[in-house]
Amino acid sequence: MAEKKQILVARARTLRRDATKAERFLWGRLRRSSFPGIRWRRQQAIGPYIADFYCPAARLIVEIDGWSHDGRDRYDDSREAGLMALGHKVMRFSNSEVLSRLDSVEEAVWRECLSQCGLKPYANL
């Protein structure tokens, strides 16, 4: 069991080092949280999965899907169901969506995050 955990942690490190442009841009926004007690982790091992972004306070996972997800809908659906069974909310965005609408994606993520934490989002996030 410890060996599987070590493998996941090593894989998460590699994914952090090799982040896509979309992941780097969104991470730049999320890591500068101005909400007390709300922090984000990137490439976080959760159960047998690695989430792109994870907010423990909200139990919210944000996945950025690039070309590596093409044709993997069944796997992605199964993975999402597994994460939801562990009590997490999952949001998905494509690389192109993040790159072309970063402000809108960030706002949607923060609104969901605050909602999951039981906080009311500001009118102008």
From TrEMBL:
SUPFAM superfamilies: Restriction endonuclease-like. Keywords: Endonuclease, Hydrolase, Nuclease. Pfam families: DUF559. GO terms for molecular function: endonuclease activity. It comes from the Bacteria. Residues 9-112 form the DUF559 domain. PANTHER family: BLL0828 PROTEIN (PTHR38590:SF1). This is Endonuclease domain-containing protein. It comes from Fimbriimonas ginsengisoli.
